[in-house]
Amino acid sequence: MSVSSAPPRKGLVVDGLRKRYGDHTAVDGVSFALAPGTSLALVGGSGSGKTTTVRMLVGLERPDGGTVHLDGRDRSGSFRGRTERLARARGIQMVFQDPYLSLDPRVTVSDCLEETLRLHSGRDLAGRRARVAELLEQVGLGTREASSLPRGLSGGQRQRVAIARALAVEPRVLVLDEAVAALDVSIQAQILELLGAIRRESGISYLFVTHDLAVVRHVAEEVLVLKSGRVVETGPTARVLDAPEDPYTRLLLDSVPRRGGRRAVR
């Protein structure tokens, strides 16, 4: 869906996003809108352009074309000053598939969260420590986990820490890049339930990036399907999963493991 003629609006608006690497076009005219408090799943197989798209949203890549607006503010250009870069980071935060790679192995959970608050908030030490306690409670962690190093935590606990760190800056949008793909099914369900509760309480928006259609119905109201950097289908989750219109979407659905002769996405 094109949003090129839409006036500035609340939420995330992506219009005609493009990115090339040499002769390869990784993202080709991607457009979508994510309203406050809603959730969109960005799906596709390997090489579909999902990761490149979200890297442009969070500022890890510069787009070659198109625009990204958050609450009417253009995020497409470069942000040179430290203050501007920090302000940009606060708008959209990202949670990666493997939190262990993004957590400093030498820093305890509480110190990790406190440092994030030191960079992004004006709280004094007492205020930061109080906020750390709130964040840990929000993601279901306690004092034992707070004093632990990342290696002393399970995969699910580390992902909860990564979520808490992202929430510490009070972002408008949380990008979850295959955030439950490395977890076993029971832990996946716990993390997805946690994320659902956080969204209901805070009104944050989620952009789920995944190749796993089995979890999409449980995490998003809308689905956008990418193939070779282009949008091939978009719409309400139930319609896309139950009555896909594009052959590539049907192929993705057919690749989902079946249980008892029915697709797991049911």
CATH H-level homologous superfamily name: P-loop containing nucleotide triphosphate hydrolases
- Tell me how many strands there are: 12
What can be said about the biggest beta sheet? 6 strands, mixed
Silhouette: globular
Question: How many helices?
Answer: 10
Explain how this protein is built.
Helix content is 36%, strand content 25%. It has 266 residues and is α/β, with parallel strands linked by helices. The strands form three sheets. The protein has a six-stranded mixed beta sheet, with helices on both faces. The protein has a four-stranded antiparallel beta sheet with strand order 2-1-4-5, with helices on one face. Strands 11-12 form a two-stranded antiparallel ribbon. α3 packs across α4. The longest helix has 18 residues, at 185-202.
Helices and strands in order:
Elements: E1 12-21, E2 24-34, E3 39-43, H1 50-57, E4 65-70, E5 73-74, H2 82-91, E6 92-95, H3 109-120, H4 125-138, H5 143-146, H6 155-167, E7 173-177, H7 185-202, E8 205-210, H8 216-219, E9 222-227, E10 230-236, H9 237-242, H10 247-254, E11 258-259, E12 262-263
Parallel strand pairs: 3-8, 3-9, 6-7, 7-8
Antiparallel strand pairs: 1-2, 1-4, 4-5, 9-10, 11-12
Helix pairs in contact: 3-4
